[in-house]
Amino acid sequence: MAYKIIFIAVFVSVIIFLYYIYPNIKRPKWERRLISAKYLRDRQFFKEADAVLEKAISENPSATQLYVTYFKNYSTPENMEKLFKTASAGYEKTGNPAAGAVTAWCYIEEGEFDKAEEILGNDEIDDFCYENNLPLKARFFYKKGEYEKGEHEFEQFYKKLFPEAENDHELYNELRPDELITLVTLRKGISKSWKATAKIIPVDSLHEEDSWKNYYEKMIDKKGNFTVETGIYGNSENVFRNRKKELDETIETLESFLDLP
Predict the structure, then answer these.
(1) Contact yes or no for 40/52 (Cβ under 8 A)
(2) Residue 84's closest CA among 223, 225, 219, 236?
(3) Which of 127, 240, 251, 258 is 20 to 30 Å from the Cα of 95, by its Cα?
(4) CB-based burial of residue 85 (10 Å sphere; 0-12 exposed, 13-18 middle, 19+ buried)?
(5) What is the pTM of this model?
(6) What are the b/e assignments for 204-235, b being 16+ CB within 10 Å?
(7) Which residue ranges of the chain lie beneath pLDDT 70?
(8) In this predicted model, what pLDDT tens digit does every residue of 146-195 receive, in sequence order?
């Protein structure tokens, strides 16, 4: 009986090793770090997950997926200095388009539009943005205050992604409120019809992420707790000013759409 128990235990251990451990051993080290970061993030150890990705990037600055994951899950967006240093160092070393896109985004947040524009002129970064549904040029013009160019760029971006779409609803019906609000605000800013575009997303919904009302409440909460620790060079003044302007415009647009006083 004891031999049977030992045999079963060994058998189960071998299965676990072959199906779960061995495949991960064969992965590149940076891929294993992605898995480790996700494990930490799933357990709400967000800063620890950041640190794992930062170490992986320092060891493998050409690995595109590391930057993508780091950017999408960066746990302290109010600390722009750390994100900028990580991305810009990788871009300088390797020219990696993911690192370049994140670096450009950081420059946009800081208001360093000339530097952002130089990076956005890179065709590889343009391709990366399309592949990852990142309308960075539209955001560039929006933050710069050139709303007509921003609205045009936003439209062209999604028309290129979905060439079969015949109208706004077909173009934008998969977007979340935090994605669509840029276009809505741009159109409102140039006195172009915008409420029909906003109606693509319902005022209220059982799904919190698909509701303008819930998104508005998140923005109000964000304004009450609004902070920026650092800009890309340390001083937070520029990022604070630029983000506050964007937040105020977003709230104003939502209040107008929701007919709030």
Answers:
(1) yes
(2) 236
(3) 240
(4) middle
(5) 0.86
(6) eeeeeeebbbbbbeebeeeeeeeebebbbeee
(7) 1-27, 208
(8) 999 999 999 999 999 999 999 999 999 999 999 999 999 999 999 999 99
